[in-house]
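ESCALATION

Customer reports they have been waiting on this structure for their group meeting. Please prioritize. Original submission:
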Amino acid sequence: MNENKQSAVKRILGTRGMGAVATAFVGLIVIYIAFGLIDQNVFSGQNVMNLLRSMSKYLLIGVGQSYLLITGNIDLSIGSMVGMSAMISATMMTMGISPIAAMLAALFCCLCCGVVNGFLVGKFKLPPFIATLGTMFVTRGAAYMVNNNRNTDAIATGIGKEAGDSFQNFFYYGKTFGIFNTFWIALILFLVFFFLLSKTRTGRHIYAIGSNVDAAKLSGVNVVTTTIKAYLVSSVCACVVGLILCAQAGMGNMEAGNMYEMYGVAAGVIGGISPLGFHKLTPWRHWPSSWNVCRRCCMADSGKWSEHDWRPGWYPAAGNWYYRRFLRFVGRGCPLRQFRKKIILRNVNFRYLAA
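Update from on-call: job pushed to the front of the queue and completed.
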């Protein structure tokens, strides 16, 4: 029994990226204990609640950035979108517009930015660093221009103290079951996007693009649409963080979200996500690599593939002929390797990605 536990622990620690997670977690515990020895208030319940509330912003930014890191992309405009969201919503509320309308306007602007980023990267093949660097300056400029290059007044001056307090309590100061609402908002969005990534077709397509974009495209994945969806997730997270910062300050700050794009990258990398894409994320046994994708494509083409056949290291006899044929055509000595691989995979019914 102990040997099984030890082997399970070794297997978990041997997972690629787990070293960074373990190191960060141990470092956090050491720092927390060190500061607790200096000041006993660090261990108080109120301080723990404050930590949960303050880290919720970085959790959301990390979720949005992690979606893109898995695909092998990045979003440098996520911090500027945070500032744009905070300024647009605060400016509209100081003008007496309903908080709901202000939030919807901020969300619409962030989604438009996400669509633009997705098209630039997915459709026009611009490097994500260059594409999102440009939109970073555009969105930060919009944050400056929306209120004539100055911070807004208190939101209560436009919508009234009661409505302003309700907005601030919902996003930052209010509590539910003794925990600040900011944490619950971040937790709900985290669970929603976790379900989207791990249990839906879109999530499998995101992983496939990060593993090998060419193989995913040949398997029937719409790379452009999937890339846009990933950037939309990033824009939604940025919008919510902007609303949280607006509620925290009770006004709009033009510098809100500054350097948050780096916080998002750090959160994703410390969490075990490689900035090089999904194929550097986890061991091959957890998700099919590009070579396993090709083998399963050949197996699916036999017409006798089933859900029970999806196991590493085992392939039904019905697919062996297709597998051998595939190896013969795309062997290393073949000068037309890439062309023949495209011909073979073009009509393959890749059941896993289409499920």
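Sent to customer with the following note: The longest strand covers residues 175-176.
Escalation resolved.
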